[in-house]
Design goal:
This is Carboxypeptidase-like regulatory domain-containing protein. The protein is built from 1 helix and 40 strands. With about 500 residues, the protein is mainly beta. Residues about 1-25 have low confidence and may be disordered.
């Protein structure tokens, strides 16, 4: 008796396993049925060839104009009805698991010998592709046997907002679309027309863009009178085109500038004018989750375009100037504390901190006009200056940046010594001060007379700098460049009509 029970149990286990295995391997399918009639008479049409794209089985209509396609894999299809002396008909349909999808055709008599274009075949992006960039090249195939010129229409739908964009392409079978949104599911299809037969539509494909722009650079562009923050990347192809992979982070309706990224907390701080004041805000890498940090004490000084602040304590705080005082504040807006104040009434315009020595600050001060500049290091724990980098010079200076271990300091100085009421630079050049040797070295860039280099930042590896260059006339269009220390090559042009770069 015990043996019988064991045998029965084994059979049951095998049966259950077989059922489970069959379930895992089964392909989900549905059915397509439909009818085909004459557009004018309403009479059913027999012997109409029925095919699908993507391809499945082929069938013909019966005397009642009916057809049925069984065991069709679930997907989006373009169903084609083709009969001699009639214009070919196309209908889009979705096949769902275990259900019957119904389609109806009303074919028109063909008045000419024109041959309709073939159903477009979508090549790229592949269906359900993920991690695509914010600029996508769409590729498809279609053709006709006559000499008609084909016009293609790309319909692109945002799966989050259901917003539909329509693009028309004549003759060509590729189209580049940029400014797509992050972490968004898109649906696309192509229709083709020869101007004679009814348009023919492809099946529908979908893809998803990457969840993060993964851009190392931040920059600012002026749009409609406001500063707008973007992220971007470097084009490493031999052509090296600028403005690669640009992604807009802030709205064009708000004035946002001076971005500063902190990789420890994966947040970007930036300045924004709010009413009559300027405050520090933070956002995620994709521009979302914007939070205001400062409130009662804004960032303030002689010229907003030349004020700068810094992350500190591995993203645990932000340091910023307010006239002659320097404040520390938590990213959530708490613990707003004054940590330094000038004794002579001079204004603090910029501050930075050494990454590997958070007790060491780099500070720039100036008078109400932006001149009489002092750049020096300051140790918080001893409340004392350590190294004077620059003082008692004529002209404007700034864009200070200190290396990770505090031994090199980057800044710009207008070597013309000019001082004027509009704070115009004439010959700004980049310099590096070595705190160990006290040697000052001018950075050799491709700048020429009549141009200024400024807003410089060390690269994360400190093997290069990123900076802004512009002609010295008022209203000149700025450009962001990169200079590698170990290269004799020309400066790399990264972003056009851009300034205030950051590289972390």
């Amino acid at each position: 008796m015990k043996t019988k029970y064991i045998t029965a149990l084994l059979f049951l286990i095998v049966a259950l396993y077989s059922c489970t295995e069959d379930t895992l391997d089964v392909e989900r399918k549905g059915t397509i049925t439909g009818t085909v009639i004459d557009d004018e008479t309403g009479s059913p049409l027999d012997s109409v060839k029925i095919t699908t794209n993507p391809g499945s089985t082929t069938t013909m209509t019966n005397a009642k104009g009916e057809f049925e396609l069984n065991d069709i894999l679930i997907d989006d299809y373009s169903v084609q009805a083709e009969k001699e002396t009639y214009s070919t008909g196309f209908e889009a349909i979705t096949v769902t698991e275990g259900n019957t999808s119904v389609v109806a055709f009303e074919l028109k008599k063909s008045s000419t010998s024109n041959k309709a274009p073939k159903v477009p075949k979508l090549v790229f992006p592949e269906d359900r592709a993920t991690g695509l960039g914010l600029e996508v090249e769409f590729i498809w195939e279609s053709s006709v046997t006559d000499k008609d010129e084909l016009t293609y229409t790309l319909e692109l739908r945002n799966g989050k907002t259901n917003e539909i964009e329509v693009f028309e392409v004549i003759a060509d079978t590729t189209l580049v679309v940029d400014n797509l949104k992050l972490a968004t599911n898109y649906f696309w299809e192509i229709s083709v027309s020869d101007g004679k037969a009814d348009p023919v539509t492809s099946s529908v494909r979908q893809f998803t863009t990457l969840t993060s722009p993964n851009n190392p650079f931040l920059l600012v562009k002026e749009i409609n009178g406001n500063n707008v923050i973007f992220s971007g990347n470097e084009d490493l192809t031999p052509e090296g085109e600028p403005d690669n992979n640009l992604y807009q982070l802030t709205e064009e309706s708000k004035n946002s500038f001076r971005p500063r990224r902190n990789n420890d907390v994966s947040r970007i701080a930036f300045l924004r004018t709010i009413g009559a004041e300027t405050h520090i805000l933070t956002m995620d890498e994709d521009g979302s989750n914007v939070q205001q940090v400062t409130s009662t004490i804004p960032i303030a000084g002689f010229n907003l375009k030349h004020l700068d602040y810094t992350w500190a304590n591995s993203g645990g705080s932000l340091l910023y100037p307010n006239f002659n005082k320097l404040y520390s504040i938590n990213p959530n807006g708490g613990s707003n504390t004054m940590i330094y104040q000038t004794t002579d009434g001079s204004l603090i315009s910029e501050v930075d901190v050494a990454e590997l020595d958070q007790d060491l600050l780099l500070i720039k001060t100036n008078d109400l006009s932006g001149y009489n500049v002092r750049i020096f290091t300051y140790r918080i724990s001893t409340a004392s200056e350590e190294t004077v980098v620059l003082e008692n010079v004529m002209g404007a200076a700034g864009s200070i940046d200190i290396s990770a271990n505090g031994n090199e300091i980057l800044y710009n100085l207008d070597t013309s010594g000019a001082q004027n009421s509009i704070y115009r630079l004439f010959s700004s050049r980049l310099f590096i001060y070595n705190t160990v040797t006290t040697i000052i070295t001018q950075l050799e860039t491709d700048v020429v007379n009549g141009q200024n280099d400024y807003d410089a930042r060390f690269s994360p590896s400190e093997g290069a700098v990123i900076f802004t260059r512009a002609a010295n006339n008022t209203g000149a269009v700025p450009t962001v460049f990169k200079k590698r220390f170990d290269s004799s090559q020309d400066d790399d042009e990264l972003f056009t009509n851009a300034y205030m770069p950051d590289w972390q």
